[in-house]
């Protein structure tokens, strides 16, 4: 069978949160892909070593990463999204991207 080659990063999430004004999703798939790219980049950056993966630094890194790409998200939105991904990726290889620093070191 010819499946979709691009595996959805977050297949379980049918319902997505809308922005407060109801316009668009807070984390549509296009933004989610950039978010995950940002996570990967964070772990490859000196920041991860320097901050030992502490979430405060990671969240700020992601806020800045998204902003550079024209996507405005608050630290609180980033933090809660990481929680969602943590729950969703339990037992998946991607879990290491959202694990707390203390779980990895």
UniProtKB/TrEMBL annotation:
Per the record, the domain of life is: Eukaryota
Give me the positions annotated for DNA binding: 20-92
Query: For the TEA domain, which residue ranges apply?
Result: 20-92
Record region (Disordered): 1-21
Q: Where is the composition biased (Basic residues)?
A: 1-18
The protein's matches in InterPro entries, at most eight in alphabetical order, are given as: TEA/ATTS_dom, TEA/ATTS_sf
Q: Which Pfam families match?
A: TEA
Please list the GO terms describing molecular function.
DNA-binding transcription factor activity
Q: Which family does it belong to?
A: Belongs to the TEC1 family.
Protein name per its UniProtKB record: TEA domain-containing protein
Organism expressing this protein natively:
Neolentinus lepideus HHB14362 ss-1
- Top-level taxonomy: Eukaryota, Fungi, Dikarya, Basidiomycota, Agaricomycotina
């Amino acid at each position: 069978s010819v499946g979709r080659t691009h595996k959805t990063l977050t297949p379980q999430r049918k319902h997505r949160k809308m922005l407060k004004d109801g316009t668009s999703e807070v984390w549509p798939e296009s933004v989610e892909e950039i978010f995950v790219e940002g996570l990967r980049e964070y772990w490859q950056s000196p920041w991860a070593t320097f901050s030992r993966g502490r979430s405060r630094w990671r969240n700020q890194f992601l806020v800045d990463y998204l902003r550079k790409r024209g996507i405005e998200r608050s630290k609180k939105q980033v933090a809660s999204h990481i929680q969602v991904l943590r729950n969703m990726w339990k037992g998946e290889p991607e879990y290491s991207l959202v694990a707390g620093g203390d779980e990895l070191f």
